[in-house]
Amino acid sequence: MKNYISKYHLNSIFLPELIKELDIVEIEKNAYLTYQSSKFTHLYILVDGKLKVEFCNVDGKFFVFTFATPLFLVGDLELFHARKNSFINTISAQEHSVLLSIPLAAVKIFGLNDPCFLEFVCNQLSNKLFESSLFQTGVFLNVEEKLKRFLYYNSKKNGSLFSLEKRENLASVLGVSVRQLNRAIKSLNEKGIIISKNKKVKIIDYCSLENNIES
Predict the structure, then answer these.
(1) Phi, psi angles (nearest 5°) of residue 208
(2) Are 100 and 24 in contact (CB under 8 A)?
(3) pTM over the 0.85 mark
(4) Which ranges carry the Cyclic nucleotide-binding domain (predicted)?
(5) Same domain membership, residue 103 and residue 5
């Protein structure tokens, strides 16, 4: 616990009263942290591992929103949403993951009136809004442009060599079909922008990748 608090400077985010309420939760690969509409009783902070965040619509189809890495807050949407009593998304572990949990009751007493805690929550919400807007602009971006944008921002976080998610999951994040995604990956390979093999991707031509993205 002390190592995670020190690593992520949580003492500068949470009051001592909230720090005392922290508990460690470990979940194994493919296990679930929350289910859609399950009871919302705790906030969770991802401090190690990777999570998949998805939503099931009324037709029973799952949409993957994101793959979360530290430092990621679970429950910030629910904290200020009209559906305060239940989780909005289903969240599972992509690998062995460690989270810190905070009882919702303690958050309401010690967090909601603390500027540092509220700033942390706002930053988390802002990041999620930014990431969700990157790839759900189908009117303006073709599949290859969506993939280039995904690879660009992934490389900024993880470097020029990283692993892709399962094609089905990545296609869901980008809002495209698996067939369209495969064609886009093949096209970027043929253009010499990337080299991909199995799940590994290496960025070769970073300038072409970022062209027009920052603007």
Answers:
(1) -65, -35
(2) yes
(3) no
(4) 25-107
(5) yes
Distance of alpha carbon 118 from alpha carbon 195, whole angstroms: 42
In 28-84, alpha helices (H): 76-80
**Dihedral sign, CA of 143, 144, 149, 154?**
positive
**Domain carrying residue 191:** 140-210
Quick one: DSSP state of residue 86?
B
Domain final residue pick, 121, 136, 151:
136
Buried b (16+ CB within 10 A) or exposed e, 183-214: ebbeebeeeebbeeeeeebebeeeeebbeeee
CA torsion 41-46-50-53 (nearest 10°) is 40
Q: Which residues pair with 29 in a beta bridge?
A: none
Q: Give the SS3 label for residue 130.
A: helix
Could you say which residues of the chain have pLDDT below 70? Answer: 58, 60, 82-84, 134-140, 212-215
What's the angle, vertex CA 155, arms to CA 151 and CA 160, rounded to 5? 110
Long-range contacts of 36-41 (CB under 8 A, 24+ apart): 36/87, 36/88, 36/89, 36/90, 37/86, 37/87, 38/86, 38/87, 39/85, 39/86, 39/87, 40/75, 40/78, 40/84, 40/85, 40/86, 40/87, 40/104, 41/103, 41/104
The b/e string for 145-155 (b: 16+ C-beta within 10 A; e otherwise) is ebbbbbbbbbb
Looking up tokens 């590994």, which residue turns up?
200
Question: Tokens 């290496």 belong to which residue?
Answer: 202
In the listed set 104, 136, 168, which residue is the last one of a domain according to the structure? Answer: 136
